[in-house]
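FAQ: What does the model actually see?

It sees only this:
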Amino acid sequence: MNIQSQQQAAGKVRALNKKSNAGIYLFLLAGGVILFAIAQFNIFRLSENHALLLKKLASVATLASLAMLLVALAEQVVKNKVHEVSRYYNLVRALHLAGIILIVIICISFLNQNWYAAAVSLGLISLVLGFALQSPIASFIGWFYILFRSPYKVGDRIQTGDLRGDVVEIGYLDTTLWEFGGDYMSTDIATGRLIRFPNSLVWQQAVYNYSWHKFPYIWNEIPFHIAYESDLDKVEDIIRKAYQFLHGDEMIAELKKLRAALAATPVDEPDAADYPIINFRIHDNTWVEVLITYLVEPKLAAAVQTALIKKVLADFRAVPDQVLFPKSNSR
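And it is asked to produce this:
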């Protein structure tokens, strides 16, 4: 990741991080301590039962506020130390969940004196809810799978089933995508629609991730049709120079990273000697089809394809005696 990308990621982390609530939690913590002191010294001459109840409530409020204060402070530490948006997002989600669980334990501990009865009641309730809420529970467990196995993260472009989009939120129960393509678009451009699907979907069907963190590129290809009389060596030279003009040696370096990543696997690495990859084949009609295969960031696929087509066609037209197009308009 270059310096500009790091700065952009840090900016996104700051944008995601809302104003800290540490001051509010500190105020609530002080209020809980004051209530506990009032109940302990019985300043208002309350009855014994009322004083005991107030003491329990004050204890719960104090410890709950302390727990949320610790979560808020931990969130600030994560904000300062983690500059990757997806990691920051997942850690904050985990911290919030830990805070909620801790508060529930505190409430049960102080408001229920009979631990055995509370445990039995909680067990029975959990059993009933387990049957009634199988899908939400599967989605919640799916959130843990997404968190630790990371089939996708916030910011990734993914496809699962017929759903395609950029991940904008991973909740405890569902995932939200910013759709691209879809029923109304023929290109990889955002449609403006949001898609929500349960996290349990990761157990049921494959997830295609276009944004693998080790190599966030995909292969794309563009076909060009030329006449049999064209100089194929000249065509190949024009395409390579056009690609070099638009992208320089950046993708050559990225392809070397891919080869290094695949070297530790049984997968054969692609040959980077002649990149971009250009192939010729005879089309069913009366022309030669030229296929250019190249690497591109998934979210820039449409823009890069457009720029490359415009550049290559302009260069083809500059040498009409060497690059000829089929005379038929049927193509």
